[in-house]
Amino acid sequence: MDELIKRAARDLAAAKNVAALTGAGISVESGIPPFRGKGGLWEKIDPMEYAHIDAFMRDPAKVWQVLIKEMKDIIDTARPNPAHTSLVRLEKMGKMGTIITQNVDGFHQMAGSTDVIEFHGNFAWQRCIDCDRRLETGKVDMSEIPPRCECGGIYRPECIFFGELIPPEHLARSQMVASQCDVLLVMGTSALVQPAAYIPVIAKEAGATVIEINPEPTPLTGSVSDYLIMGKAGEVADQIVAELERLL
Ligand code: NAD
Known about the structure:
Blueprint: H1 2-14, E1 18-22, H2 47-50, H3 53-58, H4 60-77, H5 82-92, E2 99-101, H6 107-111, E3 116-118, E4 121-128, E5 134-136, E6 155-159, H7 168-180, E7 183-187, H8 199-205, E8 209-213, E9 227-229, H9 233-247
Parallel strand pairs: 1-2, 1-7, 2-3, 7-8, 8-9
Antiparallel strand pairs: 4-5, 4-6
Helix pairs in contact: 1-9, 5-9, 7-8
The protein binds nicotinamide-adenine-dinucleotide (NAD).
């Protein structure tokens, strides 16, 4: 693993245009469980019953009670970890451009990253499904579940549920970022959710070096990614940045 840390630092040192694709695993060290993998939410609940837009429209109270309220409680008390701050350090060194994140916790921006595409939206805002009024999640009155807007409509998080489309501007910009970078860091994603999982393929086909950081192999490992650094995102990223600081 030490060799791979050094290799990643060398690749970053030589790169002119670095981007990152991050997933739920990058926030695990903050205490937010991922969907898949060990300790993931799907061990407890069925995604199709709670995270699909049809499930929400069928029974919003159930989805609010079991998934959204739990996510809110967890995100409210968690904070960014060294994986997020390492990407900020890379940006300050001029070695990180755009971060494409599948996460909805807003931690990249909270840590200080300035160019983040929130591929699956952000949990910080709710939107009324009838009148489109937006309200910060922290200001939503949750004494009634599902929470309702003044118009009587139900609030939903500004996140993409399964079965919904990625906003076209996010998709187009992410594809452009992937096709223009020369190194793509792929951190904490199972690479099972499309179309996000296709971003590394675009980068690879355009000639980028794709570096995975994950405690477990993914479908990208050994085919799309050039190498996998097996470990926790916070620990690995911190070591890569320290090695890069030594090199530059
Ligand atoms: P996923 O849940 O499918 O997979 C998580 C991945 O992270 C796994 O490959 C796992 O091995 C890896 N992992 C676990 N601990 C890690 C660590 N410490 N460091 C690095 N990697 C680690 O996540 P996904 O691929 O992002 O896709 C699922 C969807 O889940 C995304 O759309 C995302 O919006 C949503 N989600 C987001 C959050 C969040 O915002 N924090 C939390 C849960 C789910």
